Amino acid sequence: MAGCGPLGLCGEAGLAGSVPLQSTRADYHRLLGQTTDEATGELPALSVYAQSLAQDVMQRDGLRSPLTLLSHLAALREEANQPTPDPAMTAQHRLLRFAPTGLLAGCWLSGLVTVEHTSSELGQLLLSAYFALYGQGEWSKQRGVLYRSVLSACGVSVPDFASPHFVADPRFAESDFGIGRLLLQVGRLGAAHLPEVIGVHAAMTLWSPPQTVQEAAAQCLPQTSNDQPLDEGTSLHKAEPQLAQILSAYAQTNGAALARILTGALWVLDAQRQWLSSLIVQPEPSIEQQMQDLVLRKLAHGYGFHRHVKLGNRSIDAYFDPRKPQVTDFLSALAESAWIVKGQPEQSPLLTHTTQFGGPMFGVFDDAELSVIARWIGSLTDKQATSPLDVAQTAPRLDLAPAQSARNAASLAVDSSRPSPVPMSQKMPALPQLYHRWLCLHSQPESVALARAYLTARLSEVERAGQVPHLVQKGLWPWSIKRLQHWVNARLQEQVIAAEPPDTTLPEQYLNRDEVIWLLLQLAPAALIDGAWLQGTLRPAVQTSRAASLLLRIYRDELGSGLCHQHHGNLMRKVLAEQGITLPTADSAAFVTLPQLLPASFSTPVLWLAYALHSRDFFPELLGLNLAIEMAGVGTMYSRASALLRSHQIDPYFFVLHNTIDNGATGHTAWSVEAIALYLDDVATHADAAQAAQCWQRVWRGFATYSESSAPLLRAIALRIGPKLGYRWLRARLIRSQAAEAS
Ligand SMILES: [Fe+2]
Ligand SMILES: [Fe+2]
Q: Among 250, 277, 304, which residue terminates a domain?
């Protein structure tokens, strides 16, 4: 069953594609969520001011070389920090308002660190830059996580940034989501916008976080060293040498366009200046407004607890329904109820009984909230009950008025829990077409929904793998990390022991060289995109969990960890090229129509790509699939493949490498086990043991999808060369037995 996010937060999956571009908040939430094949939205046009800066840079010959451009961008830091925000704004408030940007650190590079884009030197540099922002795979060192810890240390609490509550939080202004929306948009751009993305990266390295945010952190945090508090947390200044390398590598590519890099950087400059100019202290909102904001913050948590509590003519839950919250009606009815004595908070049962020790709502509100309730009650008179009209007349404190905010929160909540519609209008295309379609996501509509349908169908085929009797039989029930570790160790042991050098009974010894190369070629659709099953963990809404950090670490290794020749796809491409086979790029139509490739050779990579498009909703299954893939790299199969290639003088390094890097002690298999353990630990903490058990079952279904996906290729290969091998094997047996008889 889908629906749980990386932390098992069911019902808060990414925003469905149907939400219109109504507001910056909604855009932010939509772009943050699950992958979609929707258009990214219009890219910004430069302001007149930014255009004048661009002209100035060009007149000063700033586009002469990448390093000249870099020095000009560095000199624009002052402009990027203007205007100075209202000095009356507290440090905590400035840190809070920057949260939609600060929590996102790094996402702008997501679209360029995919498996295909990292096969070049420049791609590897961007991969290294990306991982520097993500703490080199250490969850606690991710810049977004560090920004959250700065917020906490300063006493500022915000919801999970991927939840609808984050964007509906009334403490944020609409303008607070502007920089984040831009960064998320940029994170969805591919190679066609390479220079602009590099420009955005340069701007974020040189100008972010803004000076005022750095000062706010310095003001709030205890000074324990000479370091600026945000230096280790959010400042990207230490990435400047890496940026220079990126710009130089880009300048060596064909058709380098330094002016477009400048444009990308100025997008950020515009967005940052706009945000800074919005940092104005607003007059305190009316008490009616504060009360509405309070109810709005609480209703999602209160919904479900008040089914049988009547207020006016309906239950309280009817007012709190997140799909259609009725805040103003609720407050009008509350003002007229027996819980309230208008104008007299000290006489009102809501405050004297309900929210006091022994009352049914004790502990629900903190002191500040109780004070808001008291002031609201104090403001009520017989003639002055809150009404929709009153609400309309109160001056909105935020760009998004509460009523609109409520509607927005509701629409986000509804849409985010709704699975993408499965396109019933079309039949499932053939495997090579699916492969091409999911690698070129924007080429056809409904691709993401199709991937969900595909994944759901594959998981239903392996339903049994997650059933309790099956897990009991394997010694994997009830769930426990110890059991997992024990089971994995035992399987690896079997695989390694069985990986003795092939003896004369193994069928592959009867393969000739051409057949071996043909077999190797059948692995290319998967090998060229090795790591692609983890591509979805680049999505900001997926990568914030501790488990996802480990998956990202594996992903980086699959892509070469910053070294082009170690990119697993490049390794396979090189081995085949040495045998005279030069393959087109994996995402080209020419590749999927190569006549030498069996359609079934796309079965496993198609499964990977489907997972990559739905990593948030199918995160437990992805963890299972990942474990199966990494375990498969250790022992028997890869050792036999290495021996076979060696016997035909073909470079076996692709297989040798996996036998080492995927090891169960400190390698990918170990990280895969740890990721499952961390994930279940988080689910058990944030939800409960029952949900962790359900997720455990889902992990094993995901695990089973891997071997199931290999079956079509094994069958197709057996059909193609099985009879020939059988004949050769029989002939060899006959010759051997004749020789034995003769002797
Ligand atoms: Fe690999
Ligand atoms: Fe691996």
A: 277
**pLDDT for 231:** 53
- Is 11 inside any structural domain? no
Q: What is the pLDDT of residue 398?
A: 27
Ligand closest to Cα of 656 equals 1
Q: Does any domain span residue 666?
A: yes
Q: What is the pLDDT of residues 153-193, one digit of tens each?
A: 999 999 999 888 899 888 999 999 999 999 999 999 988 99
If you measure from the C-alpha of residue 420 to the centroid of ligand 1, how many angstroms do you get, rounded to a whole number?
Answer: 31
Measured from the alpha carbon of residue 566, the closest ligand is: 1
Q: Who's near 667: CB < 8 A, 6+ residues apart?
A: 630, 660, 661
3-state secondary structure of 496: helix
**Does 123 share its domain with 61?**
yes
Domain count along the chain: 3
Considering every ligand atom shown, identify the ligand nearest to the alpha carbon of residue 629 and give its number.
2
What's the domain range around 139?
A: 47-277
**Predicted TM-score of the model (pTM):** 0.80
Q: Report CA(568)–ligand 1 centroid distance (Å).
A: 5
Q: For 586-618, write each residue's pLDDT tens digit.
A: 999 999 999 999 999 999 999 999 999 999 999
Three-state secondary structure call for residue 113: coil
Give the integer Cα–Cα distance in Å for 387 and 389.
5
Q: Is residue 8 part of a domain?
A: no
For the domain that residue 121 is a member of, what is the CATH number?
Answer: 1.20.910
Considering the domain architecture, whether residues 297 and 262 belong to the same structural domain is answered as no
Ligand nearest to the CA of 567: 1
State the first-to-last Cα distance of the chain, in angstroms, to the nearest integer.
Answer: 65
Task: Tell how far the Cα of 467 is from the centroid of ligand 2, in angstroms.
Answer: 27
What is d(CA 721, CA 511) in angstroms, rounded to the nearest whole number?
A: 9
Q: Does residue 432 belong to any structural domain of this protein? A: no
Q: Ligand 2 mean position to 630 CA, how many Å?
A: 5
Q: Which ligand is nearest to the CA of 531?
A: 1
Kindly give the distance from the C-alpha atom of residue 518 to the centroid of ligand 2, in angstroms, as a whole number. Answer: 23
Q: Which CATH number goes with the domain that contains 470?
A: 1.20.910.10
In angstroms, what is the C-alpha Rg of the chain?
A: 29
* Same domain, residue pair 506 and 595: yes
Measure the CA–CA gap between 14 and 30, rounded to whole angstroms: 7
The verdict on 664 and 518 lying in the same domain is yes
